[in-house]
TrEMBL record:
SUPFAM superfamilies: Heme chaperone CcmE. This is Unannotated protein. Pfam families: CcmE (PF03100). The chain crosses the membrane at residues 30-51. Its main location: membrane. It is found in: Membrane. The keyword Membrane applies. One of its GO terms (cellular component) is plasma membrane. Keywords: Membrane, Transmembrane, Transmembrane helix. One of its GO terms (biological process) is cytochrome complex assembly.
Length: 178
């Protein structure tokens, strides 16, 4: 059995050159790896913040009233129906009450309400409970859900719009059948 040390590329001048080359190669990789780690951390931060702000929770009026203490000043979406006779125009917008399952919450909305805003309509509001503890919901975003009546009344116009306006308009003369 041969027990003498080997000589080859890993020993002597050639071996030292290879070892030096490996060390330089590792040094060259460190900035690239550091950059990748930084990009992953920054990307993760951006994604978490984007998802955090996109998760504004919906609450019905009765749920929000029951959770008023725990919600505090957290921003959320409140849905309910505008109570008839409660709408009052203010200098900054409109005040009214919303109800759901027999529970009502007063609302102070800043900004102009949508055209379809009226009593007994479903409304979705985004905001938070007033910091004073009055139980009023402060809103700055209002979305009105309209009924399906429009689709029934305007079926021909909607079909025409879906077809790019290329549906021929049918006109009938009274007393004739088309």
């Amino acid at each position: 059995m041969e027990l003498t040390p080997r000589t080859g590329p890993d020993s002597g001048a050639e071996g030292e050159a290879l070892a030096s080359k490996r060390i330089r190669s590792k040094r060259n990789r460190l900035p690239a790896l550091a950059m990748i780690v930084v990009l992953l951390v920054v990307g993760s931060f951006v994604v978490v913040n984007a998802l955090g702000s996109a998760t504004t929770f919906y609450r019905n009026v009765d749920e929000a009233a029951a959770q008023r203490e725990t919600l505090g000043l957290t921003r959320f979406r409140l849905q309910g129906t505008v109570v008839a006779g409660s709408i009052v125009q203010t200098g900054e917008g409109v005040s009214f009450d919303v109800a759901y399952n027999g529970v009502e919450i007063p609302v102070d909305h800043v900004g102009d309400p949508p055209e379809m805003f009226k009593a007994n309509e479903a409304v979705l509001l985004e905001g938070n409970f007033d910091a004073s503890g009055s139980g009023t919901f402060d809103s700055n975003l209002m979305i009105i859900k309209h009924s399906e009546v429009y689709k029934e009344k305007e079926a021909d116009r909607l079909q025409q719009a879906d077809m790019g306006g290329k549906v021929p308009v049918v006109t009938s003369v009274p007393g004739t059948t088309p």
